[in-house]
Design a protein that fits this description.
The complex is a heterodimer of chains A (482) and B (328).
Chain A lengths: L1 H15 L2 H26 L7 E7 L5 H7 L2 H23 L6 H20 L4 E6 L5 H13 L2 H6 L7 E7 L16 E3 L6 H22 L1 H6 L3 H8 L7 E4 L2 E4 L3 H34 L3 H5 L4 H33 L8 H28 L3 H27 L4 H6 L6 H9 L7 H29 L9 H10 L1
Parallel strand pairs in A: 1-2, 1-3
Antiparallel strand pairs in A: 3-4, 5-6
Helix pairs in contact in A: 1-13, 3-8, 4-5, 11-13, 11-14, 11-15, 11-17, 13-14, 14-15, 14-17, 14-18, 15-17, 17-18, 18-19
Chain B lengths: L2 E12 L2 E12 L3 E5 L6 H8 L7 E6 L12 E4 L11 H11 L5 H14 L15 H13 L5 E5 L7 H16 L3 E5 L3 H7 L2 E6 L2 E7 H7 L4 E6 L5 H10 L3 E6 L4 E5 L5 H11 L2 E6 L4 H14 L2 H8 L10
Parallel strand pairs in B: 3-7, 3-8, 5-6, 6-7
Antiparallel strand pairs in B: 1-2, 1-4, 8-9, 10-12, 10-13, 11-12
Helix pairs in contact in B: 2-3, 2-4
The chains are: A alpha/beta (482), B alpha/beta (328).
Chain lengths: 482, 328
């Protein structure tokens, strides 16, 4: 037993106390935070802005004033206020389930307000020049030619230049007054090169709103009923719903998408820990074989002791990764006052299923490592292991959306993948019944024991085999032989 | 005297090929045995079976009084043919780790022991270096330390002299001799016949998995006595006259020329001492010497002989029974 622990300690220390591990495991989250910060920073940069005039040909004779209004500073202010109001409401709703203190809430609102400001600033310096209703095709063509030569960025960069025309909008009569078949015509717009799609969309939204207003104003039916465009818009808004789940202990609010992310996070954590330590087990076994230190070790310990020691050492590495990452995750949740989303029991289950998954995948890696002499020879034998590892990624969504479906229940008992499936189910909003959890644990333990038994046999034969790498059939022969 | 290793009817096959066939072997406690044989003869397979690294298909084994080395690994030191160290591990740390794996309690005594051995081997300055930074010869010394650090009762060294320069060969010879004098039983396989001859008190040879020689050095010398006398004439001027006179001496059935003189083969009934006295009396000579067989001669003659005849017959011919019957 002491030897197994000595091998385990060497395996653990030689893996953990290396620059590679420290950089790989400890700095990965730091790098991720920096990367996310970097992305946030680039989002903070001002997007494309445009300065100039929009030429408007309003064939309807009624839409132009509304359109001009929509581009006035007052309209921009109103638009901003409205957007902020909508965001505030949405935030209030989503934050109901998250007890964030008022200061943080205010900060978040302030940040979102800034974002709105920036978005509006993009077209804040546009004005509308209304051309006569009957502008002829020749004049329109001249304008198009001007647009063809316009550099939209020049005026933005140099305010001393005269404001260029950056777009031509033609509103046909049928855009406001329905044709005989009841349909409306589309607006025609012409742009110089390099006008950002987001800018075009914002301009269209304002013009579109103004045209809808014009339709309501000019339609005798609405006029007779005294309805304004605002009223109709409000009427057409879909109601929001306040979901509540009724349980035996009372009502509770339904968890949002965040609740679906928790099982995914748990499963990812499990996979990262299992795969990292499994891969290292593979690498160190191959290294011992290729550096020929294996036979020296086997003169001191039996192959089984060696394998057990190595598996135990890397198990500790996996647990360390699990503790570091889950600790960071839980700390982050607590900082954002979301600690209640993680059930302490889920962590216990995760560790239990980590042990099962690790013994299944780890012993497979150890067996593969013992059978080959180089890492690239291991690739072909890795396929079955990779299948086991990839399946949970494919199944995450269907299982976390329906944790008690027939598929989820059946997969809970499929050897190899069931630890991952159970972790998703256990951390979902509808945990499985206890008997299923216990059965899954039993299936997992049996699978782990079988894998360890087979691997020990392969390991015993494989460690001293050099030369041509074995195929699956040879491995089966070794199992029978040992 | 008890036996450190006893092997009876040991057989191991790899697929259709016999690696070791019905091998019987006895290594007396405290002896220093050389294990020789051509490449692929089955030496390493036998050693690995003694070490319980691989297991025989049939046969019985006893190592240090136990039915397998598994039960007495701590009392055995092993230097495998395929040498290996943890490349990234520091030299002293590697030796401490191996010592602990071999059942040493560790702590300060083990550290001192490691430091002492490194000092003796001239590796003290390399204690903190990674194993990969050492030369091949240095690595071999480190591995030898790993094999003896726990003061084993039985030391098994597979191809211990391979890859060493003459200076280090001499050093290794001294170390093996020292371990032997300390009372350890030593088995070493080698192709270095000179070293085997210098060190061993018993030699085993296997060929094609069969034991073809098992005897003490004295037994080998008498069994393979070439019955040849080497004569170097006093001057090179009267060579032909000397040859004529030598041919007339009774008991000599053949005279052949060599670089420095002649080799005289004795007939079956001649007394070498009487013939040598007659030579000194009749022929002016600078040197008269009874030729002694070398292990290399025995090795080559056994291998050559086996190419022409059945190894079983060869084994019977050379009487490869040693102290024990082979069972066949």
């Amino acid at each position: 037993m002491m030897r197994v622990l000595q091998i385990a300690w060497r395996e653990f220390s030689s893996t953990v106390l290396t620059k590679g591990f420290i950089i790989g495991v400890l700095l990965t989250p730091v790098i991720m935070v920096v990367a996310i910060g970097g992305i946030a920073l680039t989002r903070n940069l001002k997007g494309p802005q445009v300065t100039g005039k929009l030429a408007l040909v309003d064939r309807t004779g009624v839409a132009a004033p509304g359109i001009v209004d929509r581009f006035s500073p007052e309209a921009a202010a109103a638009e901003k206020a409205k957007a902020q109001e909508a965001i505030t409401q949405a935030m209030d709703k989503s934050m109901e389930q998250i007890p964030i203190d008022p200061t943080q809430k205010a900060m978040a609102k302030g940040m979102i307000g800034n974002e709105v400001d920036k978005a509006l600033a993009k077209i804040g310096r546009l004005s509308v020049t209304v051309l006569p209703d009957d502008t002829d095709d020749a004049a329109i063509q001249t304008l198009k030619d001007v647009l063809g030569r316009t550099d939209i960025h020049a005026a933005t960069k140099d305010p001393s230049l005269p404001e260029p025309t950056v777009g031509l909008i033609i509103v046909p009569r049928e855009a406001v007054f329905a044709s005989e078949d009841g349909g409306y015509a589309e607006i025609q717009s012409f742009w110089p090169e390099k006008v950002d799609f987001e800018i075009r969309e914002r301009i269209h939204r304002r013009i579109g709103d103004a045209i809808v207003d014009a339709r309501v104003l000019t339609d005798p039916k609405f006029a007779a009923a005294g309805l304004k465009a605002e009223d109709i818009r409000r009427l057409l808004e879909r109601p929001t719903a306040a979901d509540k789940v009724v349980t035996q202990t009372g009502e509770k609010k339904t968890a949002g998408p965040l609740q679906m992310m928790i099982p995914a996070a748990f499963m990812a954590l499990l996979l990262i820990a299992v795969m990292s330590s499994g891969q290292m087990l593979l690498t160190t076994t191959i290294e011992e074989k290729s550096s020929r230190v294996m036979e020296v070790l086997l003169s001191a310990v039996s192959p089984l002791q060696l394998m057990l020691g190595k598996i135990t050492g890397q198990l500790c590495v996996g647990l360390l990764i699990l503790v570091i990452y889950s600790g960071m995750g839980i700390a982050a949740l607590i900082v954002f006052s979301m600690g209640h989303l993680v059930d302490p029991f889920a962590i216990v289950y995760m560790i239990l299923f980590f042990l099962i998954a690790y013994f299944i995948i780890g012993s497979m890696f150890a067996a593969i490592g013992s059978a080959v002499t180089e890492l690239r020879e291991a690739q072909t034998l890795m396929t079955p292991v990779m299948l086991v590892v990839m399946t949970p990624w494919l199944l995450w969504l269907p299982i976390s959306r329906a944790p008690n479906s027939m598929l989820s229940q059946i997969l809970s008992f499929v050897p190899g993948i069931n630890p991952f499936v159970m972790v998703i189910r256990l951390t979902s909003s509808e945990p499985p019944p206890l008997w299923q959890t216990l059965t899954a644990i039993a299936v997992g333990l049996a699978t782990a024991a079988a894998c360890a038994w087979i691997s020990a046999k392969i390991f015993r034969v494989g460690v001293l085999m050099y030369g041509k790498p074995p195929n699956l059939r040879t491995l089966i022969k070794w199992v029978r032989m040992a | 005297m008890s036996n450190a290793v006893t092997i009876k009817g040991l057989t191991k096959t790899f697929g259709p090929k016999f690696a070791v066939r019905n091998l019987d072997l006895v290594v007396p406690t405290g002896s220093l045995c050389g294990f020789i044989g051509p490449n692929g003869a089955g030496k390493t397979t036998t050693i690995r079976m003694i070490m319980s690294i691989i297991f025989p298909d049939s046969g019985e084994l006893s190592v240090l009084g136990q039915p397998s080395a598994d039960k007495s690994k701590d009392r055995i030191g092993y230097l495998p043919e395929e040498r290996g160290v943890y490349r990234k591990m520091k030299v002293a740390a590697f030796l401490t780790y191996m010592g602990r794996l071999k059942g040493h309690d560790g702590g300060a005594p083990l550290k001192h022991k490691v430091a002492g051995w490194l000092e003796r081997m001239g590796l003290a300055e390399n204690a903190k270096k990674r194993c990969e930074e050492l030369s091949k010869g240095m690595q071999q010394k480190v591995q030898f330390i790993a094999a003896v650090i726990h003061e084993p009762d039985l030391l098994i060294l597979d191809e211990v002299f391979s890859g060493l320069d003459p200076v280090n060969r001499r050093l290794m010879r001294g170390l093996i001799d020292e371990q032997h004098r300390a009372g350890r039983t030593i088995i070493f396989s080698t192709h270095a016949m000179y070293e085997a001859e210098q060190l061993c008190d018993r030699i085993f040879m296997i060929h094609h998995g069969l034991k073809v020689l098992d005897a003490t050095l004295g037994e080998i010398r008498s069994r393979f006595d070439p019955r040849t006398i080497i004569v170097e004439p006093a001057s090179s001027a009267d060579t032909s006259a000397s040859e004529l006179r030598l041919e007339t001496i009774p008991g000599i059935d053949n005279v052949s020329s060599s670089r420095d003189g002649f080799e005289l083969h004795l007939d079956d009934h001649a007394d070498p001492r009487a013939v040598m006295a007659a030579i000194v009396r009749d022929v002016p000579v600078r040197r008269v010497e009874l030729k002694r067989v070398t292990l290399e001669d025995v090795f080559i003659s056994l291998v050559d002989a086996s190419e022409g005849e059945n190894t079983e017959q060869l084994r019977a011919a050379v009487g490869a029974t040693g102290g024990e019957e082979t069972g066949k």
